[in-house]
Amino acid sequence: MAEADTKKMIDGNALVSMCLSRAGTDRMFGVVGIPVTSLANRAVALGVRFIAFHNEQSAGYATSAYGYLTGRPGVLLTVSGPGCVHGLAGLSNASANAWPMVLISGSSDQSLAGRGDFQELDQVAAVKPFAKFSAKATDITEIPKSVFSVVDWAVAGRPGGTYLDLPTDVLHQTVEESEAEILIAEALNSRDKSLIENPRIDNSKIDKAVELLRSAQRPLIVFGKGAAYAKSEIELTKLVESTGIPFLPTPMGKGLISDKHELAATAARSLAIGKCDVALIVGARLNWLLHFGQPPKWSKDVKFIIVDVCEEEIELRKPFLGILGDAKEVLGLIHKQIKDDPFCLGKTHPWIEAVRNKARDNVAKMEVQLSKVVVPFNFLTPMKIIRDAILGVGSPAPVVVSEGANTMDVGRSVLVQTEPRTRLDAGTWGTMGVGLGYCIAAAVASPDRLVVAVEGDSGFGFSAMEVETLVRYQLPVVVIVFNNGGVYGGDRRNPEEITGPYKDDPAPTSFVPGAAYHILIEAFGGKGYLAGTPDELRSALAESFSARKPAVINVTIDPYAGAESGRMQHMN
Ligand code: ADP
């Protein structure tokens, strides 16, 4: 047989899949079509699990959360033009939240550029505001280097979104398999190792941080989703417990140390941030979620110690002390240093007593509200029932996905997080519509955990069709929809706002009243429940939690129970 007949040729689609697999990608999300269907099939054949969605937006949100939950970049695959544009929702969300993600889009044939090819778009230009690094493989030989660089850049420094552009002609080009192996080996060898290394920590700053914490009268440790991403829970717990310093998690930091811990200042948030004199901020930005670190919420004299992997973040906030480094490593060093010359505030320290008493009072006040059974449901009555059902699951604790204005606000104060990375919500950008995507990511990333979404009907509606995806992959996800018939609920307009030729249209905030969201999932073979009373809700939760199968619980909420814009009415 002639030598040429024995040579195995592979195309660009196969080569991309091989490289992704070598880069450690084991899950992909996306919507297939021209020219990337074969890429998805090839990836699956190499052992990658490909989760096929209905919409790239939702698939993109899933990809972003997958990167956060696993610490490895999620990969989103889309078609060219509109597919890539839909994927930008996920890419921008990843960058805004500092989560690693790679968007891979097919693009039109290079020889036809500028002539109106099928789904043609300058995609590298389109992704620019949202991607910290982009690569375009203009020839099949460039594929290995491009794939490894987008994967490495996604996790480098502050994690974020990267983009890989794959023109149709490149996906169809072929090379011999043996040459492909050589290209892969060369690309692996020339990988920039500095991208995946953590910054070196300045030990003199560790000394200073320890001195500041030691001499503080009212210290506080605040941690966020950067600390969660760094998997720093063991070091954080050791630091908190050895020093007796109270802690405050940001919404997604919740669970790194259990909300039930006696040093949790969550229920005394205003007092803790308003009165602390030294605040160690770990993997959290002093942005709107933390009131920019400014008065009146914070004391004007507070000394911030910021631990962050991103130098620009430290420069931006100008803290008293900035420590550049990975949260887990920095916390480990601080704890080690304190262990050599320990200090502990103790239960009778006035600051600890003040925080504890305030937290106890606030929890007691909340429990009084929660103990009232209000039907038709307000937000608190069903939230308490859901809280108890989630806590009843024990360990491994469910991942809670939360979005919506009132539903998320109430959920943040009522739901209890006991384990790390078990809360996903609208995040830094307040992104609505993330719910179903986040549920799918969580179920894929943590197959041993139940996933429970507690979301408003508006948030659910953004991607409700993905309930079919839940059923198709038989994911253990229970979606609880707080159905108050609209964005914020019923029509709240002033009479003078109801005028003009379209005054009889439904209000911009209104949906069809009593929408049967539970029936939607039944169209695909999932389980739906309608719950308007505590007994109905308890029974639906008990059955769906033990079944661990896709379910939607449609909870009827009084349309006037919530407030417009939740707790952010001042921003309207
Ligand atoms: P939150 O919303 O919980 O307040 P943010 O997303 O605002 O959290 O902030 C997370 C911060 O964590 C970002 O500034 C990011 O640069 C930082 N970060 C990401 N990874 C790490 C890490 N491994 N160690 C320390 N900081 C990190």
UniProtKB/TrEMBL annotation:
The family database entries (SUPFAM superfamilies) matched by this protein are listed as: DHS-like NAD/FAD-binding domain, Thiamin diphosphate-binding fold (THDP-binding)
The EC number(s) this enzyme carries = 4.1.2.63
* Entry keyword annotation includes Transcription: no
The broad enzyme category this protein falls into is lyase
Residue ranges occupied by any Thiamine pyrophosphate enzyme TPP-binding domain in the UniProt entry: 407-555
Keywords per UniProt: Lyase, Magnesium, Metal-binding, Thiamine pyrophosphate
Q: Which family does it belong to?
A: Belongs to the TPP enzyme family.
Task: List the Pfam families.
Answer: TPP_enzyme_C (PF02775), TPP_enzyme_M (PF00205), TPP_enzyme_N (PF02776)
Originating organism: Salvia divinorum (Maria pastora)
| Thiamine pyrophosphate enzyme N-terminal TPP-binding domain sequence ranges | 12-125
Q: Where are the transmembrane segments?
A: none
Can you name this protein? 2-hydroxyacyl-CoA lyase
GO MF terms held by the record = 2-hydroxyacyl-CoA lyase activity; metal ion binding
Report the catalytic activity. an (R)-2-hydroxy-long-chain-fatty acyl-CoA = a long-chain fatty aldehyde + formyl-CoA; a 2-hydroxy-3-methyl fatty acyl-CoA = a 2-methyl-branched fatty aldehyde + formyl-CoA
Q: Which Gene3D superfamilies match?
A: 3.40.50.970, TPP-binding domain
